[in-house]
Design a protein that fits this description.
This protein is an alpha+beta fold and 71 residues long. It contains three helices and two strands, in the order ααβαβ.
Amino acid sequence: MSDRQLSVFQSGIRDNRERGTLGDFLQENIESSSKLSIVSAYFTIYAFKALKPKLWSIDKLDFLFGQGKRI
């Protein structure tokens, strides 16, 4: 991995492409007893299914649904 690629990955920003996926980040970082807050217009049942084992282990989840921008 080049220095640029490494600094982009370590930035904490995820773009679901070159900078890693949000799903992978959540899988790696959600721990038992976590308190998680999510704001999204694009969280789907498929995302929930992929994260279900992790989400069932947390203490608290606050979720604010937004409205996606229509093109």
